[in-house]
Amino acid sequence: MLPNVTPIAELPEPHGTKPGAPKVVRRFADPFAEDDNRANCIRCGYLVEQKRDARGFKTCLQCG
After folding, report:
1. Measured between alpha carbons, how far is 42 from 58 in angstroms, rounded to an integer?
2. What's this model's pTM, rounded to 2 decimal places?
């Protein structure tokens, strides 16, 4: 005979967003788009700022 189990309330997603937190828009460069000639960071993959890309840096400001 199985023991009587009481249901447990579901916990929120551990990596979910906090309520009331602003949504962050993360932009990626599209290498397949003809009109998008921007670069993605070689460390994190996010968009490299235009000024850093023009200077030859291959990483975003956060990665250094």
Report:
1. 6
2. 0.51
